[in-house]
Design brief:
The structure holds two protein chains of two kinds. Chain A is mainly alpha-helical. Chain A is built from seven helices and no strands. Chain A folds into two domains: 67 residues, Helix Hairpins; 86 residues, Up-down Bundle (Monooxygenase), CATH 1.20.1280. Chain B folds into five domains: 207 residues, ATPase, nucleotide binding domain (Nucleotidyltransferase, domain 5, 2-Layer Sandwich); 86 residues, Nucleotidyltransferase, domain 5, CATH 3.30.420; 70 residues, Alpha-Beta Complex (Actin, Chain A, domain 4); 108 residues, Substrate Binding Domain Of DNAk, Chain A, domain 1 (Sandwich), CATH 2.60.34.10; 90 residues, Up-down Bundle (Substrate Binding Domain Of Dnak, Chain:A, Domain 2), CATH 1.20.1270.10. The chains are: A mainly alpha, B alpha+beta. At the A-B interface, helix 2, helix 3, helix 5 and helix 7 of A face helix 9, strand 19, strand 22 and helix 15 of B.
Chain lengths: 180, 632
């Protein structure tokens, strides 16, 4: 069972090492592994077996979370190619950062609008589109072997993740206020 | 197939031996125990034929303990020694509960420990001990009925239960001398009870579990694929339940009797209110069958029709459906993808709830199993399986953590390490670095919640990693590992990579935020008198005011000097002192206004701080560095 730890995440789920993902196949193979290694299968086994089961499923779950997220999958692919990420490394693309700031401001303004939920929805849509562009950009650069550019795309993805979170929180807050 | 399973790791190849196992629904109002007998899961009754055990424990002078109906009967006469709704106190610290002083009838003991203790005639009791008494009673009932010792149990917990609450539940089981196979989320148990995993017609299906209890509401979205249950998302409202529907009727009655009552005698008034609440509940339950019900209380005679009732509770129903929509969004699913809707909790007996939930999900919900028993039955099925009594079963329950887990980083912000709805067990590591030259220690502050700042999340634990070798800032590599087991319990360790200096903590006690769940911890045994509700509203606003003040103070302490001009500072402080005054002497409404004003006044500052964070990133500086221990 420990040999599972030696496989990289793609191999673990019998998937090709690439950015495009067959989500259904991942979900299917994830469940098959869980079926074999989940701690519930060892409810009456020895403590050691139970500990190993927890560690193995922990690894399987982390692998699954990593591959499911486009950003983490991209980052992982680069790491497999030997690209280093410094702690807390970030992008220095000024235009990009200005754009981020403007989107943040737009979100704040949307909250004050007459139809805040619709406004936030619109911005959410835009964030999703931009995210998609970035993913296309990454895929293109990775295939072409432009690792520096590919890495830059991954760093930028983090910002959209945060924006996405923020938009989501805002939506939830606005909904809550409707009932306050 | 059978051959394959025998060779699976952990599967016993020894001759089969039936192990006694039970499922326990440890509820806020009532608890149940169920077991699988001759292939059928049923709840077990006491010697008088009652299945539901009221979750009330009474301590007597001679040290003996009453659990259940007899304790419930004594609630009014022996309030201080009869403890109800202990589940709401489980895993809460004394600080959490302090905000409820005057609301709860119990006398809390002041101790140095984080554990709240209730003073009773038989000594000081923790909520864990109280819960253990309920578990002991159920254990005895099960062992007498089944005729042998229980090998293990599955205990259900609400999906929203945090780490501390799950830990406390396990501790209670340990005190009751029970072997816990697994803590199971209540909605998952309900889906299991309906045997939805037995459906061979489809490969994969999405299930929604709508759970409206007395005081809480939960919605969970599950995915089932060839026997594997996955919780995709959970949501709800820990302060919305059937009691609120009673309130809506009570309010209506109050409006009708207003003209007739002139009695200003307070105890009499409270007594009247209690009667009105009782009548409200009766009317609500009667409306399940009848189209209209006669209302008679306090000399008021009237009729409440179902249509009127629906109008009264409309906002409550809408609120639950909004939570459903949110959970679906979290799961990234559309309504029409949901293939089964399971109803849980006594309040789902209301026809209007069934109707509206059916409309929302575009299909009639499942109501065949008693909504009070369905969770215990599911737990029993899972317990039977974990005991190894059903080696051919394909069923596997995969749970997720309900709230994100993270660490405090520089500037009072929270860096999430494990996102909510991640499948457990899970282990995740992240590297951090030092903030100052020669920094030799680092404080690891573990938090649970979805918000960006430390104050808004729940603090789970704080510990210090020492022995970091002298290095320039940013050179040390500290690996922090979060490990969550299958029950949702957390372990955190931190290790300096060069020297191997290590520090570990099992996250157990809970301090910090009082969330709305506790603020609304009006016990089910007590009636919500109007005076109490006003007092509660006021207390909530006071807490909110404190929160706003704390947020402002900590912001100004960290960057007020650099981000604010002298005049701006003055304006903020003026709004601040207005809020302090309102908090001391104001009403709920005036405090609310002062909070809103404070937030409006500070909005430019908030915006500037947010920009500040981005600018820091632009300058290539780290925002994820820990603050140095000495800075706190």
């Amino acid at each position: 069972m420990s040999s599972k730890f030696k496989q990289n995440y793609f191999e673990l789920f019998s998937l090709p090492i690439q950015f495009p993902l067959d989500k259904q196949l991942l979900a299917h193979n994830f469940r098959e592994l869980q079926r074999q290694y989940h701690p519930d299968r060892f409810a009456n086994s020895s403590d050691q077996e139970r500990r190993i089961a927890i560690q193995t499923t922990g690894y399987i779950n982390e692998a699954n979370e990593t591959l499911k997220s486009a950003r983490l999958r991209a980052l992982y692919l680069l790491e497999l190619q030997g690209v280093d990420f410094e702690l807390c490394e970030t992008t220095h693309d000024m235009n990009f950062l200005m754009d981020q700031m403007e989107t943040r401001e737009a979100l704040e303004e949307a909250a004050q609008a007459n139809d805040p939920l619709d406004q936030v929805d619109k911005i959410s849509q835009r964030i999703k589109q931009n995210k998609q562009h970035l993913e296309d950009d990454f895929q293109h650069n990775l295939e072409a072997g432009n690792l520096v550019e590919a890495k830059e795309a991954v760093l930028k993805m983090r910002f959209y993740e945060r924006l996405d979170d923020e938009a989501k929180h805002l939506q939830e807050k606005l909904e809550d206020e409707m009932f306050a | 197939m059978a051959l394959l399973q025998i060779s699976e790791p952990g599967m016993s190849t020894a001759p089969h031996e039936h192990r006694l196992a039970a499922g326990i629904d440890l509820g806020t109002t009532n608890s149940l125990v169920a077991s699988v007998r001759s292939g059928n899961a049923t709840t077990l009754a006491d010697d008088q034929g009652h299945h539901l055990l009221p979750s009330v424990v009474r301590y007597l002078k001679d040290g003996s303990v009453q659990v259940g109906q007899s304790a419930q009967n004594a609630l009014t006469d022996d309030l201080q020694n009869s403890i109800a709704s202990a589940k709401r106190l489980l895993g809460r610290s004394i600080a959490d509960i302090k905000t409820l002083d005057g609301v709860l009838p119990y006398e809390f003991v002041n101790t140095n420990s984080a554990l709240p203790l209730i003073h009773t005639i038989a000594g000081d009791k923790s909520p864990i001990e109280v819960s253990a008494e309920i578990l002991k009673t159920l254990k005895t009932r099960a062992e007498e009925t089944l005729g042998g010792e229980l090998k293990g149990v599955v205990i259900t917990v609400p999906a929203y239960f945090d780490d501390a609450q799950r830990q406390a539940t396990k501790d209670a089981a340990r005190l009751a001398d029970l072997n816990v196979y697994r803590l199971l989320n209540e909605p998952t148990a309900a889906a299991v009870a309906y045997g939805l995993d037995q459906d061979q017609a489809v490969d994969e299906k999405i299930i929604a579990v709508y759970d409206l209890g007395g005081g809480t509401f939960d919605i969970s979205i599950l995915r089932l694929n060839r026997g594997v249950f996955e919780v995709l998302a959970t949501g709800g409202d820990s302060a919305l339940g059937g009691d609120d529907f009673d309130h809506a009727i009570a309010e209506w009655i109050l409006q009708q009797v207003k003209q007739t009552t002139t009695d200003n005698n307070r105890p009499q008034k409270i007594k009247n209110l209690r009667q009105i609440m009782q009548e409200a509940r009766r009317v609500k339950e009667a409306l399940t069958e009848a189209e209209k019900v006669d209302v008679s209380t306090q000399g008021f005679e009237g009729i409440l029709t179902r249509t009127q009732f629906v109008a009264l509770v409309e906002p409550l129903i809408k609120k639950t459906l909004f939570a459903c929509r949110r959970a679906l969004r979290d799961a990234e699913l559309e309504k029409d993808e949901v293939m089964d809707v399971v109803m849980v909790g006594g309040s789902t007996r209301m026809p209007i709830i069934r109707e509206r939930v059916g409309e929302f999900f575009q299909q009639p919900p499942l109501i065949d199993i008693d909504p009070d028993k369905v969770v215990a039955i599911g737990a029993a099925i899972q317990a039977d399986l974990l005991a190894g009594n059903k080696p051919d079963s394909e069923m596997l329950l995969l749970d997720v953590i309900p709230l994100s887990l993270g660490l405090e980083t520089y500037g009072g912000l929270v860096e999430k390490i494990i996102a909510r709805n991640t499948t457990i067990p899970v282990a995740k590591a992240q590297e951090f670095t030092t903030f100052k030259d020669n920094q030799n220690a680092m404080t690891i502050h573990v938090l649970q919640g979805e918000r960006e700042t430390v104050e808004e999340n729940r603090s789970l634990a704080k510990f210090t990693l020492r022995g970091i070798p002298a290095m320039v800032a940013g050179a040390a590599r500290i690996k922090v590992t979060f490990q969550v087991d299958a029950d949702g319990l957390l372990n955190v360790s931190a290790e300096e990579q060069l020297t191997g200096a290590k520090s570990t903590v099992e996250v157990k006690p809970s301090y910090g935020l009082s969330d709305s769940a506790i603020e609304n911890m009006i016990t089910d045994s007590m009636t919500h008198a109007k005076e109490d509700m006003q007092a509660r509203k006021l207390r909530e606003q006071q807490i909110e005011a404190d929160r706003t003040l704390e947020a402002l103070d900590s912001a100004m302490a960290s960057d007020g000097d650099t981000l604010l001009s002298k005049d701006e500072r003055k304006t903020l402080l003026k709004a601040r002192s207005a809020l302090v005054t309102a908090k001391k002497s104001g009403t709920a409404t005036t405090i609310d206004a002062a909070i809103k004003n404070m937030e409006k006044t500070a909005s430019f500052y908030v915006a500037r701080r947010m920009d500040g964070n981005i600018r820091t990133a632009m300058a290539g500086k780290n925002i994820n560095k820990f603050k140095h221990e000495g800075k706190q």
